[in-house]
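Subject: design request, 280 residues
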């Protein structure tokens, strides 16, 4: 019997040892001869590498000399996964906890559907496990609309229907390695946001679909990197989206987004306030 195709789960870490250790703990059930985990350390200075080696001595670690950001770090992780002869790659944020069987539905979707370019799970808030953070994505660049489906709604049967969606969130998604390479990987010109939307759009331009796979579930510690600073987060998102509109020649989005920016800023503050209420 032939061995199933190798899947490499790439977990990017930058000074987030505690989050990464919790994530790796949840991934232990996913590790098998056909599925391995690669931690990419983005030049951490908090002793992350030593802690990871201490608690998970068998985990492969790619140590980068400095912080290459989300796109650069994950691109380096992808190149390492190719050296490991992986056929599928799963990019997973380190501030997540995964369902023990989260990986199989993603890879099975890609194996079953040759037209599928990306498979993305249902993602819920880690601190409110029954509340959705992502159940699909809407990307209408002509009007400047980029948003998650179901965000801050209670999980419900209507979010259990798999199917095509507009874009995959970079928090967690799976691809065939050959498709990621053909798409050109992550655009390292993006800062902290929109690189996932950009990649999704390029995959769609290749004639492939983005598949939402609710049978796969992940819980996300949302915005751990910019906790408590909603305006900074909104500013970085705005810069990234402006670059996205320009790159994809979405002139309508470029015109409408600045007009709606004050409204988005208010919504960002309101969202942060709602999060604080949820946490109480």
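Subject: RE: design request

Done. Sequence follows.
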């Amino acid at each position: 019997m032939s061995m199933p195709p190798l899947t490499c789960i790439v977990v990017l870490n930058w000074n987030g040892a505690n989050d990464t250790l919790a994530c790796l703990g949840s991934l232990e059930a996913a590790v098998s001869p056909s599925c391995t985990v690669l931690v990419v350390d983005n030049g951490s200075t908090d002793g992350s590498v030593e802690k990871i080696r201490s608690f998970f001595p068998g985990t492969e670690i790619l140590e980068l000399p400095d912080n290459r950001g989300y796109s650069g770090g994950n691109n380096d992780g992808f190149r390492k996964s190719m050296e490991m002869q992986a056929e599928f790659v799963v990019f997973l944020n380190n501030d997540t906890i995964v369902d023990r069987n989260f990986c199989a539905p993603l890879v099975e979707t890609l194996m079953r559907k040759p037209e599928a370019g990306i498979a993305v799970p249902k993602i819920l808030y880690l601190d409110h496990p029954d509340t959705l953070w992502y159940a699909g994505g809407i990307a209408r660049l002509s009007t400047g609309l980029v948003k998650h489906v179901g965000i801050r709604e209670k999980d419900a049967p209507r979010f259990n229907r798999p199917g095509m969606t507009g874009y995959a969130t970079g928090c967690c998604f799976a691809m065939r390695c050959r498709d990621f390479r053909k798409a050109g990987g992550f655009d390292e010109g993006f800062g902290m946001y929109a690189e996932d939307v950009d990649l999704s759009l390029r995959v769609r331009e290749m004639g492939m679909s983005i598949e939402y796979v609710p049978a796969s579930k992940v819980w996300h510690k949302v915005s751990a990197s910019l906790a408590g600073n909603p305006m900074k987060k909104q500013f970085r998102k705005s810069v990234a989206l402006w670059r996205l509109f320009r790159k994809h020649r979405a002139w309508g989005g470029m015109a409408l987004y600045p007009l709606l920016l004050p409204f988005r800023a208010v919504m960002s503050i309101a969202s942060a306030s709602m999060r604080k209420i949820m946490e109480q």
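The CA atoms of residues 52 and 230 lie 30 Å apart.
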